[in-house]
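Here is the promised in-class demo. Please do not try to memorize the tokens; focus on the logic of going from shape to residues.
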């Protein structure tokens, strides 16, 4: 359709900006609590522990997660995403604790499911980094992250999470072929109803630092450096690339992904747009820990209005094409919107 911009002075675009109700009426993009997912960290301790690099975010007990889940449902947030803080004694080179049906995250899933049933979505991360001594998302041998061997473990991890009752498994590991293998295993186990949210375009970003502090994998990556793989650039995407992201999405959709993720969101608005335009599938974005921490730090220093900056940051992600956004601001924003 050809645009007809009109001509000044008969056309004055400021007319529709005069009043709040008028700006709202002609707004092209709207943000609602239903557009948000709240990421939560669960740990083994009774008391909550603040994450120093993420002001306002805490590691919660299983009971604390249940309460947060109830709060999310009351605020109209449709789902939570669970990330475990795994104790050092449960970490190993082969990440075997990820497969334990009674591990921390499986217990948290069962507890939340008992409280909320199917009224609130439970999304579970499928990756090995919380469980490995080296902090990588895959198995490590002789300075190399093993793809197919890792996929075999991820399949079992996804099966354990589905058995615990999670609604969505979210492979964030970026191994090739893992979506198809997980889908086949879930279907064979009669779990056709479990969705797969693929982290299809996950970049090797500098903005993940606070998250790694929160789950305890940051220190483990120091161990990885001594083993010859100091970073995740051999499996996470190069931030220089966008066409590659479309190939990743296409492959994951062909393998059975129901939804796809772009991460980090704030530095990949163009990728969100291209993915949504090219495929028209449910496209999620993750406002990652570093993005959250920057806004909080600037607000704490009085350099910007934190709540307004948070809201604007999410609105532009929605404008770029994100159907839903994982953000640590979820409860704050949901309260403001309601």
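The designed amino acids, position by position:
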């Amino acid at each position: 359709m050809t645009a007809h911009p009109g001509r000044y002075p008969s056309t004055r675009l400021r007319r529709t900006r005069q009043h709040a109700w008028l700006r709202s009426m002609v707004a092209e993009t709207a943000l609602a609590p239903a557009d948000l997912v709240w990421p939560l960290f669960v740990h083994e301790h009774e008391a909550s522990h603040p994450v120093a690099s993420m002001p306002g975010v805490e590691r919660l007990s299983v009971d604390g997660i249940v309460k947060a889940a109830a709060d999310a449902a009351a605020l109209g947030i449709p789902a939570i995403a669970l990330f475990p803080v795994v104790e050092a004694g449960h970490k190993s080179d082969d990440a075997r604790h990820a497969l334990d049906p009674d591990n921390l995250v499986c217990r948290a899933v069962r507890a939340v499911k008992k409280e909320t049933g199917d009224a609130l979505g439970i999304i579970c991360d499928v990756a090995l980094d919380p469980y490995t001594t080296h902090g990588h998302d895959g198995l490590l041998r002789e300075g190399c992250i093993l793809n197919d061997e890792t996929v075999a473990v991820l399949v079992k991890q996804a099966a354990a999470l589905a058995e615990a009752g999670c609604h969505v498994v979210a492979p964030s590991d970026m191994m090739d072929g893992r979506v198809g293998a997980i889908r086949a295993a879930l279907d064979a186990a009669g779990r056709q109803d479990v969705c797969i949210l693929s982290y299809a375009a996950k970049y090797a970003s500098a903005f993940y630092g606070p998250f790694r502090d929160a789950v305890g994998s940051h220190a483990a990556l120091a161990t990885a450096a001594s083993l010859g793989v100091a970073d995740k650039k051999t499996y996470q995407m190069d931030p220089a690339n966008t066409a590659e992201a479309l190939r990743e999405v296409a492959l994951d959709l062909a393998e059975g992904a129901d939804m796809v993720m772009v991460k980090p969101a704030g530095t990949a608005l163009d990728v969100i747009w291209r993915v949504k335009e090219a495929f028209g599938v449910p496209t999620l974005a993750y406002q990652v820990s570093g993005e959250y921490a920057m806004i909080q730090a600037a607000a704490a220093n009085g350099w910007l209005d934190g709540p307004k900056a948070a809201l604007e940051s999410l609105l532009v992600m929605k404008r770029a094409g994100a159907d839903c956004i994982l953000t640590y601001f979820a409860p704050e924003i949901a309260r403001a919107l309601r």
